[in-house]
Amino acid sequence: MDRFNEMLIGGITLVGGFLTKRIFNRQDQLEEKIHALEKLVVTKEDLEPLERTTNIILEHIINRK
After folding, report:
1. What distances in angstroms separate CA 56 from CA 3, 28, 48, 63, 64, one per listed residue?
2. Could you report the per-residue pLDDT of 5-54, keeping only the tens digit for each?
3. DSSP code per residue over 6-37
4. Prediction pTM value
5. Residue 64 and residue 10: Cα distance in Å, rounded?
6. What's CA 16's distance to the chain center, in Å?
7. CA-CA distance, 18 to 53, in Å (whole number)?
């Protein structure tokens, strides 16, 4: 009976370890995807220098004779 309990505990431990590894692996993959998407997201603050440059170019074109 003790041998059976040890095997049962060992089996449960293996299954639990396997499931935990899969869950954390998926979480790591999701975090990597989120970080990659965050690099692509453009914020309003990112667009301000571009807007200023565009305004300068347009003013130059309009005021050019």
Report:
1. 81, 44, 12, 11, 12
2. 999 999 999 999 999 999 899 999 999 999 998 888 888 888 888 889 99
3. HHHHHHHHHHHHHHHHHHHHHHHHHHHHHHHH
4. 0.48
5. 82
6. 26
7. 54
